[in-house]
Amino acid sequence: MIEKLTRILSGMQEVSAWSISTVTTRSSELFYVGKKLETNRATDTETCDVTVFTDSGDKRGASAFSVYPYMSGDDIREKIQENVYAAGFALNPYYDLPVPANGSIPESGSNIRTMTLKDAAAIVSEAVFKADVYADGYLSATEIFLTETTRRIVNSNHVDMQSVSYGGAVELIPSWEKDGEEVEIYHMLRFESIDPEDITEKVDTELKIAAARFEAKPLNDVLDIKAPIKVIIQEADAGQLFDYFADDLEYSAKYMKTNKFEPGDNVQGEAVTGTPLTLSKVPYVKGAFRSAYFDADGVYLTETPLVENGIAVGRYGSHRYGSYLGVAAPAGLLPVTVVQPGTRTFDEMAGEPYIRCAVFSGIQVEPNSGYFGGEVRLGYYFDGEKEIPVTGFSISGDMNKSRGTMIYSKEVCTTSSYHGPRYLEIPDMKLA
Within 10 Å of residue 106's Cβ, how many Cβ atoms? Predict the structure, then answer.
């Protein structure tokens, strides 16, 4: 398909530049109700997206469309002409497309590569249900997906990049039922390689969370929520707070004049009492599901430091906005945020009363105001002796006030797009 499109696009003078992106996905999928396998499915899909560019003076317009296998050469040419016309109504400042870069795409390190997807799905299934051993708790529904994904980007500047990646996902609905009452939760587990023991442990954790949700008391019943209290945010939710700094250092934020920080600024403020922040954007971390060695524009990605000991040292972002800022070699949209951990363990952080937020309905971070917070579906109140599961409350804070006081844990974790401290301690948070 790409070779056919390349010939057609290269022969059309009305096209100033072009880019083609294809994604081919093979999968093995298992669908369970309880422990009964209801559906066993294999898929093989391909998508092909084309972006055409047209130039007018110092302006460039772009328009994108999808190409399907049933389309003839004439169909494709007609589609191109329609989108060239549309691109002429969406003119922006001119920018060139990426050019080939020195660097190779490593072979995937996933152990899924060494087995069939069917066999991989069976191994994951066994690991998942190994955790389903509780009298009152069970997995009411489970969906397992093992995938092989081939991505290729080709453009009119001779970029031609391809990668093959592997991964898995498990959608879980753990339930806890007792005395005629039931609680269900939802969780998506993603992984790059298969570690059966780790999968079993994580599914077990979700079943225990369902049990804690069942037993959780309204926070008002155990604590005066009017008083500020130390809050601990964990794992992927902590990663979202760190992205507050990364997002501000994107080229687009600088170009749109919405950024707060410039290289050389202390992004944590002047009175830092917490852990100094060191943050980078990287293409790959083992276990990070969203790892990628090139972005959607075909930019070859390499590690880019953004903050060192609290001081902003760089920017990153798309080729387009990097070009607008005059960056000679834009870093690209790197997928994984890496934060250097702190020196205090969770036990050292937890020596006084706190609220640990285990499950949010969705933590939010507003980049312009610095507001962050969200509804907590499951938290744990530590009263000085033990953790008590609690629910029915929300937290709110201000990054402008908290950014220099946060403490990062020594323990680390890896999620789909984050590698860094597992726990993030924030003093004097407001509850509602």
Answer: 10
The pLDDT value recorded for residue 367 is 86
Residue-range domains of the chain with CATH? 2-215 (3.30.2290.10), 229-431 (no CATH)
Q: Is residue 11 a contact partner of residue 1, using CB atoms and an 8 Å limit?
A: no
Q: How far apart are CA 234 and CA 378, in angstroms?
A: 12
What are the tokens at 28? 């093995």
Whole-number Å distance between alpha carbons of 133 and 190: 22
For residue 238, give the nearest of 374, 408, 424 by alpha carbon.
424
Q: Token pair for residue 288? A: 């990070």
- Cβ neighbours around 360 below 10 Å, total: 20
Which residue type does 54 have?
A: T
C-alpha 68/C-alpha 49 separation (Å) is: 9
Residue 338 near residue 282 (C-beta atoms within 8 A): yes
d(CA 151, CA 46): 10
Which tens digits make up the pLDDT trace of 45-66? Answer: 999 999 999 999 999 999 999 9
For 275, which DSSP code?
Answer: P
